[in-house]
Amino acid sequence: MQIKLFLDSVDATTALAQKLASRLQNGDTILLYGDVGAGKTHFARQIISTRLAVDGINEDIPSPTFTLVQTYETTQGEIWHADLYRLTSIDEIDELGLEDSIGDAICLIEWPEKIQENLAAHALQVHLETCDENTRNVVLEWQHQKWDDMLHDVIKTLENPIDA
């Protein structure tokens, strides 16, 4: 299935990530696609900070560009944020332990095309495309039915979502 949106501001992109974050469960994987600067890290940071805020944690969320993976402990479970842009070999995935976290933790993976064949079939794909500095075209794609009701509920709670 697929939902296409036009988000007319950074706040709208933030709201989408925050609404999604409040409905995620352990074992959910989100694959973040887009060019450099499309907003993948911003989107992931908003999910992470929303989940941490439930525990009263206000933490700086660094980009995992150089570490490849950052993990966060919450009372609701673990969050893994991976940025695979600098991944040079598929063998590095084993070293990161990322595959072990899929299915147990909430996993947010930037540049998933680097390991496409190894990803969970149950993942939500978020494609971000920059229109200008503040606006984005967003395509949400999924195959597993667990995302159906959740995503339609998320979209209904957004202010002024515009079908692209």
UniProtKB/TrEMBL annotation:
Q: By its UniProt entry, which Gene3D superfamilies does this protein fall under?
A: P-loop containing nucleotide triphosphate hydrolases (3.40.50.300)
- Kindly indicate whether the keyword Cell membrane belongs to this entry: no
| Location in the cell | Cytoplasm
GO MF annotation terms: ATP binding; metal ion binding; transferase activity
Any single GO CC term annotated in Swiss-Prot or TrEMBL for this entry: cytoplasm
Q: Respond yes or no to whether keyword Oxidoreductase is given for this record.
A: no
The alphabetized list of GO BP terms reads:
tRNA threonylcarbamoyladenosine modification
Q: Which UniProt keywords apply?
A: ATP-binding, Cytoplasm, Magnesium, Metal-binding, Nucleotide-binding, Transferase, tRNA processing
The entry sums up its family as follows:
Belongs to the TsaE family.
Q: What is this protein called?
A: tRNA threonylcarbamoyladenosine biosynthesis protein TsaE
User: What species does this protein belong to?
Assistant: Paramylibacter kogurei
